[in-house]
Prior knowledge:
This protein is an alpha/beta fold. It contains eight helices and 13 strands.
Amino acid sequence: MAKVSAGSYDLNTWLYGGYENDIVTVIYGGAGSGKTNLCLLAAVSQARKGKKIIFIDTEGGFSVERVKQLVGEKDGVEEVLKNIFLLKPTNFEEQKKAFIELNKRLKDQVDLIVVDGMTILYRLDFADARDDSEGAIQTINSELAKQMKTLAEIARKREIPVLVTNQVYRWENEDRMVGGDILRYWGKCLIELVNDKGRRTAYLRKHRSLPEKSLDFVIDNKGVRKRGWI
Length: 230
């Protein structure tokens, strides 16, 4: 099975080579758990090899300064940034348009797609729709499902790895993914990140060939490494 590097030796070891090429990988968790860092790691890793990345940033988490830290070389930063096409929608309608732009960009060579914050703009529209009508809620859910289906089809047909991050909410003492069944269905690999008072753990919740397992990790200037390693 072809895979793309996660940008970290320890993550690659944990995932037996990295993220799979022909599926959508959903990385979900609370604020500060490391979701954006995992996306940037993979994007920078591929961009350094001359690969082209489409990065849809809905939360404003894309940081040039963080990219500079991960690259580690002043001379290589501009080249890395040239290989990352950044889209920054600010509402769910703009996110919809970003997917139109995404399809246009597929006419050129694309090696990785990242959607950092798949549901934050959806969540805002969903909250407004609850005060409107049942039909409005169905329309918003249908659009989210359509976007996830689009990503899954791109991954499968073009063998382009897709990384999607997602938020969680608390319900009956349990963390649940925003968008629930929609993202669970289309995401063939699910990775939950937990930040417990600064101690970060990744849980592999769903995978086509690997069992459920966990990895304690830390985030530093160079990227992500297994906790306890120097």
